[in-house]
Amino acid sequence: MTLLERPYWLDTAPRPPVPATTPLPSHTDVAVIGGGYTGVSAARTLARHGVDVTVLESRTVGWGASTRNGGFVLPGFKIGAGDLLRKYGAIRARALFDAARDAVRFLETLIASEAIDCEYARCGYLALAYRPGHYDDLERAAALLSQTFAYETELVPRDRLRSEIASDAYHGALLEPTAGGIHPAKYFFGMADAARRAGARLLENIEVRQLRRTAGGFDLTTSRGPIRAREIIVATNGYSGDVAPSLRRRVVPIGSYIIATAPLEQRVAQELIPRRRVLSDTKNLLFYFRLSADNRLLFGGRASFTPTTTAASARILAQGMTQVFPQLARVPVDYSWSGKVGYTFDQLPHAGIMDGVHYAMGYCGHGVALATYLGARVADAVAGKGDLLPFSDLGFPTMALYRKRPWFLPLAGAWYRLADLLG
């Protein structure tokens, strides 16, 4: 069978009818640059506040990570609870963690209120210990999450792990019961439809080429002409370009790659992941995987830190998949695709104002819930109906000599591979 080099999600969530090309208005109250989860969530919220809002997307809305991700809905952040506590102290760490949990609740409320059919389920998330010592780390994390963050998890020792996953590759796990799985494209298209119904203007195939601050707001030069806006929200995350260079150099676009197998027999799928949870391991260069509604195994990871082909990344991931599940060695891979994850240097998302523009970005692989939530939060702030604490006063670090190209990624990839090899 020919490998399909496109996101599986888009073949199972046909793009809904798009309104005929809407003219670019001469002015708008708020221009949102970027039409993914963050930008469309912001647009929906602004429109519900009665604000005239225009989303400017350089491709088609949802083209980037919003319809390419693994569909994990996770509380917390990429940075672990212990590091969060050591870096920020108990009060701020708890405020940040509570906000991340609020993000999941916000997503669930949005799905219910807008009646979005997106296969969402609170199935739980398993962090799988790649080394025996990693399970000790998970034990410490579970105790800290309970005692300091009032967040209850469950340890799954190795002798019970077969009840969760048909693999001997791991040494135990930590279960986060409030995490979930979602069809990311169905969710995105449902939210985009909700934003349009609320009155937001979602414009596609418009490249923003220049921003100029004026006394009354901003003048934007686009590929379809000029537009003036009172406020700007930058929502480009891992796809940030030249229009906001101060923000671009604070977010590192890292390629994430996913394959999807042919549909598995129900018996095989039930054996592989009996409770249909979403899972990832504790390596630096981790694998993440789950079952789709039609019983495909979706298997992802950081297949390369340098440019590669979709077919090459599929071979790398298929090898990793059979290391975890040797029983799938003869199962064909139907789909392979990639997208860009927006990473930050402190492994936290950020939202605030920089150079006069509002922004939210840098979700580090936790973007389904956090991007939806922070998009709405930044919209509330623009409309004068909220603030962006505890994210807006974190500082937003970058790295010396990083401007456009993340030249350090191959070095970082080599370091993480060595660290995973040495344990």
Question: Could you explain how this protein is built, in words?
Answer:
The chain has 423 residues and is of the alpha/beta class. Helix content is 33%, strand content 23%. The protein contains ten helices and 18 strands. The protein is globular and about 65 Å long. The chain starts with 7 loop residues before the first helix and ends with a helix. The model has no long low-confidence stretch (mean pLDDT 95).
Shape label: globular
Order of helices and strands: HEHEEHEHEEEHEEEEHEHEEEHEEEHH
Task: Compute the CA-based radius of gyration.
Answer: 21 Å
Roughly what percent helix? Answer: 25-40%
**Which class of secondary structure composition applies to the elements?**
alpha/beta
Q: Give the low-confidence spans.
A: none
How many distinct beta strands?
Answer: 18
Mean pLDDT: 95
User: Whole-Å distance between the termini?
Assistant: 38 Å
Percent strand equals: 15-25%
Largest sheet: 8 strands, mixed
Tally of contiguous helical segments: 10
